[in-house]
Amino acid sequence: MEFESPKMSRLPTIRRLPAYLRVLRQLQGEAWEHVSGTYLAEQLSLDPVQVRKDLTITGIVGTPRVGFMVDDTVAAIEAFLGWQNATEAFLVGVGNLGTALLGYAGFERHGLKIVAAFDADPAKIDVEIHGKPVYPLEKIADLAARLRVRMGILTVPEIAAQAVADRLVVAGITAIWNFTPVALKTPGGVVVQNEDLSCGLAVLSAKLRNADGS
Amino acid sequence: MEFESPKMSRLPTIRRLPAYLRVLRQLQGEAWEHVSGTYLAEQLSLDPVQVRKDLTITGIVGTPRVGFMVDDTVAAIEAFLGWQNATEAFLVGVGNLGTALLGYAGFERHGLKIVAAFDADPAKIDVEIHGKPVYPLEKIADLAARLRVRMGILTVPEIAAQAVADRLVVAGITAIWNFTPVALKTPGGVVVQNEDLSCGLAVLSAKLRNADGS
DNA sequence: TCAATATCGATATTTTTTTATCTATTATAG
DNA sequence: CTATAATAGATAAAAAAATATCGATATTGA
Lengths: 214, 214
What we know:
alpha/beta, 8 helices, homodimer, Rossmann fold, DNA-binding
C-alpha cells in the first residue's frame, strides 16, 4: 500500500487556483455566502467536475445542494499557496519588463512583495522605480542575507541570465521566477519557474496558422 | 482505421519548440551543420526521446549517427509556427506591461510585429511609445480593416478586458493574446491564448511552500 | 413529512503526455 | 570491407490529466 502524499504534483490544478481565487474574491465583494462548483465552472469556461476536483487539493469540502463557503474557500486556496502573508522578493534586471513588474500593484494580492531591485547598469542605480530602490548587483548577497529574502525575479537580458542566477543562488535565494528564455542550471533545492513569453506565442501562432491555414 | 490529422493538438510540444529554436539559432551562429537530439536535450534539460518526438511534429527528419541539419530544423520549426514572415498585431492597453511589450525587440525574431497601440486614456494618445503610434480605442475597427491586422495583444486593466476583447472581435481580429486574468468569452473562430502571470506565481509558491514547508 | 432537484464526492474511463525499449541506419575506425 | 558505436525512429508501457458516471446528501416546495 502506498501513502498518499499530502500533495502530489497536479501542476495544471495549481495553475487554475488563481482563477478560482479571482472569481471568489469578486463574490466576496458581493457578499455571497456560498458558491457552487458549477457556477465557478461557468465563469471560467471549465468543467464543473474539474473545478470540484481541483478544489479538493486545498482540503476544502463543500456541502451538497449548497456548494462551497466562499470565505473558507478563499482562505483554503490562499493557505495552500502560502499567499496569506506576503513572500518578499528581489527583482533583478530593470529593463522594460522588470520595470513593468515593479509597477504591478496586483502582486500584493498574490502574496508577493518586491522589496528591492538590482541592475548592472550604473545609470539605473540609486534611483527609485515605482517606489522600489535599485541597487548594483554586488549588493545582492549582502541584502539577501540581511533581509532574509529567498525569492528572486529574473528579468535580465538572456546573455546574463545564468550568471545572475548563479549569483542569486550563492546569495541564498531558493526560488527563481525566470522571465528569460534560458533553461537555467541550478543546484537541487532551488525551485525555478520559467515564464517564457515565446511559449505562449508559439501556441497562439500554431492555433492561428491551423485555424485559417486550412 | 483512423486518419492521422497532420497535426493533433500536442500543446506541450508546441510550447517547447521556441526553446529548440533558440538553441538552434545559437548553433547557427557558431556554424554548426548538424546537431543531435541528445545535445538539444542536454542544453534544455530534457529527455532525448522527447526532443526527437517533438521535432517530428515539424516534419523534419534526422539521419542516424549525424542528427538533424541545423538550418533545416530552424526552417522547419519556423514554418510550423508560421514565423517565417511576421504576423502584424495590435496592442491594446499602454500601461506598464503594454509599454514593456511595445519595447521588446525580440518579438520580431518570433514572427510578430506590433504595428500600432491603442489606449482609452486621452493623455496617451498621439504620442509614440517605443516608436509605435498610440491611437484611441475608437480607431481599432477602422485600422484593423485597412491594415488587415488579425492579432490583438490585450494588456488592459481587468475591468475593461471583456469589452475591449469584444471590440477586437468586431474589428475582425481572430487571435487574441490575453495578458489579463479574465477568461474571455469569444465566438468560435477566435483563438485566445491566455498569459496570466499569476498561474506561474502559483506554481512557484506551491513549490516553495512544499520545498521548505516539510 | 415526502418527493424532486441541485450539488458534492467517489469511482471509472478515456485521452494525453511522458518515459522506456528495441530495431535499423550510417559514419568512423580498424 | 567489416565491426562498432552513436543516433534516429517506431513501438510499447507508464504516468498524468481530463472527462464521464453514479450514488449520497441537503435544500426546497408541496
